[in-house]
Write a structure and sequence with these properties.
Largest sheet: 2 strands, antiparallel
GO cellular component, one term: plasma membrane
Number of strands: 4
Order of helices and strands: HHHEEHEEHHHHHHHHHHHHHHHHH
CATH class: Mainly Alpha
Keywords: Ammonia transport, Membrane, Transmembrane, Transmembrane helix, Transport
Structural class: mainly alpha
Radius of gyration: 23 Å
Subcellular location: Cell membrane; Membrane
Family: Belongs to the ammonia transporter channel (TC 1.A.11.2) family.
Number of helices: 21
Strand content: under 5%
CATH architecture: Orthogonal Bundle
CATH superfamily: Ammonium transporter AmtB like domains
Pfam families: Ammonium_transp
Length: about 500
Amino acid sequence: MAANVSTAYLESLPAVPDWLNKGDNAWQLIAATLVALQGMPGLVILYGSIVKKKWAVNSAFMALYAFAAVLLLWVLVCYKMAFGEELLPFWGRGGFALGQGYLLRQGALPATTHLRKDGSVETAMTEPYYPMATLVYFQFTFAGVTLMLLAGAVLGRMNIRAWMSFVPLWLIFSYTVGAFSLWGGGFLYHWGVIDFAGGYVVHLSSGVAGFTAAYWVGPRMQCDKERFPPNNVLLALAGAGLLWMGWSGFNGGAPYAANIDASIAVLNTNICAATSLLMWTSLDVFYFGKPSVVGAIQGMITGLVCITPGAGVVQAWAAIVMGILAGSIPWFTMMILHKKSSLLQKVDDTLGVFHTHAVAGILGGTLTGLLAEPHLCDMVLPVKGSRGVVYGGTGGIQLLKQIVAALFVIGWNLVSTSIILLLIRIVIPLRMSDDELLIGDDAVHGEEAYALWGDGERYDESKHAGYSPKYQQTPTRSLIGETGRGGAVGV
């Protein structure tokens, strides 16, 4: 038996070159699939369930479109802009990631070789033990999920044609900049900023860009703002469950290998998510008198976002601390501060992505600067000796790096998102017409989420008025801040 196991890792050309590690390749493909499941079907189900019934189809479709559009553009030009050779300190040189010769070679991030001040190599170029095809697909899933998260801020009113134009432009001019700067070998990567799996690249950018987009697109109809109940809470919980379980691939795949740091990252991810969920639920019970499934989903997400920038570089006790803060600080900004802030009240962020992704992302990046453990940092970071404030030494400098990087991501996304939407607005209205907003899915897609009459036939008063009483909605608590709990579900 031992001989059979050992021969499984021997070179066998052409399918098994000497650099291929089947364990790493298998884990990375699994991790990529887990991340993809976060978006398709995770976010598609969550978005289609957490919104008002008349927007279920449109909300799910916006996420579905983003997932597909990002993949095609990713292999045509964007992968190399994010992880290829350096063009500018914050941007890679774009190009195809399609050729067989390119995709079958060993994975490599050519701009990641980190040099000391004297020019000698401190950390060699990142070269995982699997092919470029695996690396390209793994990184696509992060990009796809980022655009899907951003969509949550503009559900229920953004013109679908404007959204279809926005997705490729934002991917090119915003996402690839953050990804190259922090992951692909850009200036923040070599400076030593820690963003283990996307607290800044994915969550802070989607939260800030989503909030900015919500401002330029404009608000929903007043009736939708005042009353926006989820059409299926249990199905929303199913989508949230896929999001949580998929996060093990999100953070566990970040080391690019099935190594011990991947194990730490997966454990910390789940610890922080559970702690944050319990903290958010406890605050709901204390403040509102009862627990909420929607609140539990919010707390789960803020915990997952908060741990992401430091999942593989903090200890398990630190993950608990991060979970407590992730379940309380975004809770405060969403439930209390949102009602009191005139700025937040002016911007109609449908699902509260500013609170659950921007606030939680900044919180996670800052806490990483405080709690990053030196031994774990040396396993995965290009700048050796990195550490958080609590471990002394250069910890104070690390915290400063984290703050500066957050400001860069915020500033770039504010400007790039605004420019993209203002250019689109010249040729395509950003907001749907009032008639479309009033009707919803049937006006935009000619489809509705649920068939209330046999064989998919929709209610027609002229045909069915004598058959059954006209459908009337019953009052229910809003997800937005006008009643009771005061916060949109943050996804």
